[in-house]
């Protein structure tokens, strides 16, 4: 709620003492404007309130208000050129505020007494004092102008028509500066990959999509949308408003794309950022792209991805899969008689993976790797370790993501 109060009469009080430098007729006095700010902040401090910060935009507007009342022979909160309040001018200048108020007053005291007297008058008027001591106020602008003034009528505000030479006209504009932050969040594009520790479906692959965001006021929520086979975009339900990842079972051979936007705690919304269009593809262990070294055997297993497995118990036996894509997963078989294998990516040893489990488990993705969002040619190589007592290592399939 905006507040504006009208000073209708000047009270007769004793003029305070204290030397003030005279200012020329027809000009503003920055010294008296500073004095008024000091007096306001002193009384606010005595009430336990925070000091107000001078806002130069408000100062310029207040100086214009004071001089405008003198030059256009009126006194009031409605401005004749528009019959609107000062708040409209604040809005037009892009001044952001959540509360604002205006005090205006005039007197004919000597230059060295006028500002102190005006302050005393404001403090003796309940509505003007309330503005000065309003706990919402954070900023102030003061305009102190001296000029020959005639008290005329304008915008329904009635004056007496009398002339007052060398009048001191004061405008105090208070506001609570808006803390609304308008910068939208910064986000990363959604990034999808295959991860170990998941399980391949009969016709689907578990794909983990991740993203991030940052904002000065904090992220309130993310909106993730998914497009399947170049169709319409559909919003994905996240585990929480600020979740930064999701794992979904995506159909092998279908195409997918994700896009993301974020909303901060101030309600600012970022533009959508798009991830690449990609396709999850499976290559069975019998594919020509899978090259075996050493001794391997085949077994028919109904619970395997393609109905069969390749396996070896010989240390040093290897299975290499060269492919084009951004991510790859090795699908194997876990059980109490399974052992360990070394995993190489593009010739570099990255991990030793154990397939041992107290119970049997079909189609686990036992190792996953990713190379960013740009498809390239890569090789994953599995080398049997020959674990004592349970050396067997299986290759069921390799699943990968390729960008389109």
Structure, explained:
This protein has helices spanning 30-46, 56-71, 86-92, 111-124, 126-132, and strands at 27-28, 53-54, 97-107, 139-150, 163-177, 186-187, 191-194, 198-199, 204-210, 213-214, 219-228, 233-235, 245-251, 256-264, 273-274, 278-284, 290-293, 297-300, 308-312, 318-325, 327-334, 340-345, 348-354, 361-370, 376-384, 393-395, 397-403. The model is unreliable at 1-19 (pLDDT under 50). It has 404 residues and is an alpha+beta fold. The protein is rod-shaped and about 115 Å long. The protein has five helices and 27 strands.
Features:
404 residues; alpha+beta; 5-stranded mixed beta sheet; 5-stranded antiparallel beta sheet; 5 helices; 15% helix; rod-shaped
Q: How much of the polypeptide forms β-strand, as a percent range?
A: 35-45%
Number of DSSP strand runs = 27
| Mean pLDDT, all residues | 92
Structural class: alpha+beta
Taken from the alpha-carbon principal axes, the silhouette is rod-shaped
Give the end-to-end Cα distance, rounded to a whole number of Å.
Answer: 55 Å
Low-confidence stretches: 1-19
How many helix segments? 5
Gyration radius over CA = 38 Å
Largest sheet: 5 strands, mixed
Please estimate the helix content: 10-25%
Give a concise summary:
With 404 residues, this protein is of the alpha+beta class. It has helices spanning 30-46, 56-71, 86-92, 111-124, 126-132; strands spanning 27-28, 53-54, 97-107, 139-150, 163-177, 186-187, 191-194, 198-199, 204-210, 213-214, 219-228, 233-235, 245-251, 256-264, 273-274, 278-284, 290-293, 297-300, 308-312, 318-325, 327-334, 340-345, 348-354, 361-370, 376-384, 393-395, 397-403.
